[in-house]
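User: I'm putting together a teaching handout on how multi-component assemblies are represented. Below are the sequence lines for each component of a complex, exactly as they appear in our records. Could you produce the 3D structure of the whole assembly as structure tokens, so the students can see both representations side by side? Please keep the chain order the same as the input.
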Amino acid sequence: MRYSEEVLSRVREPQRAGTLSGSDVGTGEVGTLDEGTVVRIQVRKVRDRIAEARFKVFGCSAAIASASLVAEWLEGAAIDEAGTLTPERVVQKLELAPERAYVARMAVEAGRKAIDDSNH
Amino acid sequence: VAALVGAGSKDVIFTSGATEANNLAIKGAAKARAAEGADGAEGKRDHIVTVATEHKAVLDPIARLEKEGWRVTVLPVNGVGLVDMAALEAAISERTALVSVMAANNEIGVLQPIKDAAALAHAKGAWFHTDAVQAAGKVPFDVEQLDVDFASLSAHKVYGPKGVGALYVRSAFAKASADQRRLVAQIDGGGHERGLRSGTLNVPGIVGFGRAAELARAEMAAEAARVGALRDRLLAGLKAKTDGMRVNGAIHEATLVRLPGNLNVSFDGVDGEALLVSLDDVAVSSGAACTQAEPSHVLIALGLTKEQALASLRFGIGRGTTAPDVDAAAMKVSDVVARLRQMSPV
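Assistant: Of course. Below is the structure of the complete assembly, with chains in the same order as your input.
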């Protein structure tokens, strides 16, 4: 499996890995250990913007890079622009092979779930 | 090369590598023995015995013979990678043509009891082959003392050139006069190497192999002690910094059960691929290099799950490895494992 520099640098020096806590935090988790990949994204919403985003992930390099990219994109984004984040954009940015596109879908879905959760 | 394994110089057949040597031994022996009892069921030998943790260069030729009608028994190993001698004895019968058991495993370094295995084979009249690629030059390996009929060797595993290997053939099975009991060549044309492997010899490769074998033999005892101490240092370093780690394969028994330069460990709670990608400056491999991304068949044979097998690292400590190298490796691996575990939501 060959990865782009974009993936490798995110795996070797991951940014925004971690957890958020508090009543204003929304959490989205996708996948199971049995499936081999679990992505969790957490966001802290301040008014209509995402002030902070963090990820945790168990999975391959592509999963780590996808989760880190989603967290990076979400942090600072307005809630209504967060919906424009698509798996295709993640795949493109990270230059993921088609067989790894599923982890980009998982990371984006975890991000959306986190935002939904923070709306409730 | 012959001296490295205690053989006479005429008993070594040079090949393009150990894969060819294994193919020659296995297919050549099968072909030779198929002729026995061909005129009736009496004395017929149509069965081959091997072990699940063998290299693909042994398993694949045997799988091909199986497709051609040979009966094959692939014996399991126990949790530390050793073949069960009672199971081996039970598997070998008067119908067994060949038994092939590797001397040292390429992934977990475990040394099989070759002398005992060869004795079990010979007791039933079966021929005995061993893939000695990893053992020769690293630990004492003597074809006479072990009483093996065929032993495969590779030059580059003793720091010689790539593209050259050899098969030790017991002289009785190489004699043209005793044609009924003679290994059958797999490459014909010109009758080189006592008719067992035709083709112009790779002279530069063989000269390099000879010199590498000479050096390996001269330095074996000292190098085994040095490399073994470094392997133990690496293991101690990893253990001190990382929990949830298991060593794959037998190690530190009363007798020598593992190559001194081999360490193979699995880590709980990390993804093997992410682990490998993160270890950009440590030269490790996950299983055998040629079967990456698929879990190692050797580790699966030890009873590991697919996830455990994928989250395993094989460290090879060799002539160029120093104490600072192993310390740096232990530190880096421990750091990466800790980081990946910390990153995990489960």
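A couple of points students might notice: The first helix of chain B runs from residue 18 to 34. Chain B has ten helices and ten strands.
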